[in-house]
Amino acid sequence: MNRFFRVMSKIAGICVCGGLMFSWGAAFAEGGLLEKMDLDIAIEGSLDFYSDYVWRGFVLDRDPVIQPGFNISGYGLTFSFWSSWDAANEHGSQSDEIDYVIDYTKELDDLLSLSVGHTYYDFPAADAYSREFYVGVGVSRIPGTDIPVETSLTYYRDYGDQNAGGGLGNYFSLDVAYSQTISEDPGVTLDYGLHFGYNRKLFLTGTSGYDLGLSMGLSLPLTDRLTMTPSVNYSIPFGDLKDSADGDQEARFYTGVGFWYAL
């Protein structure tokens, strides 16, 4: 019962904070105080729905999930709030999650960028938490061309206490994204994504695992500031991530639709 009230209080807190942030953002956005004060700050929000919750090759929840979040960014710094909530609770996965992320990204030129950041993971339904820092490098296009294939290589170090729900391991992620314009007006794009991850003892009792992720979706502008992004995704585990004696994960298709709003 105490856990139930803790989860419900967190959900209520998210709704209140989300409402306050939206109201604050609307007041400070275009035509408001941000413009008057000439501050280079962006406020964005997202609301995603997925048939499954898949993270780094792990299927964390086989129920549909709702994943709201928002970002406040400016001068290279970004604060992000992100969460995932089980919409059906038929499998008892206790996957509800709240993440707080602080990121600093430095654009070196029009091609390269460097990022460092930290994430605090809270799992209220499981009464657990973890912590992770990361560092990464990004490339905005294929070098020597104008083809906008975005590529990033990121190293993550989870240093959370395993007794409290931490992973205490390392993860390397290579991600590639490309968007192909299929309609100039209203600016519809076909989006492709490729992900390859190497897991070194992160939530694994064995030595290492790998995961491959493929995605394809559409970006459909609904208004000047609101975009809808339906997608289909496929996750494939390898190594200890697939081993029935360790990660015991399986390849899985899952679908989703997201909404992204820029204030």
Topology of this protein?
Blueprint: H1 2-28, H2 33-36, E1 41-50, E2 53-55, E3 58-61, E4 65-74, E5 77-86, E6 97-107, E7 112-123, E8 128-139, E9 150-158, E10 169-183, E11 188-200, E12 208-221, E13 226-239, E14 252-262
Antiparallel strand pairs: 1-4, 1-14, 2-3, 4-5, 5-6, 6-7, 7-8, 8-9, 9-10, 10-11, 11-12, 12-13, 13-14
Question: What does the model show?
Answer:
- This protein has helices at 2-28, 33-36, and strands spanning 41-50, 53-55, 58-61, 65-74, 77-86, 97-107, 112-123, 128-139, 150-158, 169-183, 188-200, 208-221, 226-239, 252-262.
- It is mostly beta strands.
- It has one domain: monomeric porin ompg (Porin, Beta Barrel).
- Strands 1-4-5-6-7-8-9-10-11-12-13-14 form a twelve-stranded antiparallel β-barrel. It has a two-stranded antiparallel ribbon with strand order 2-3.
- The chain is globular.
- It starts with a helix and ends with a strand.
- The model is unreliable at 1-7 (pLDDT under 50).
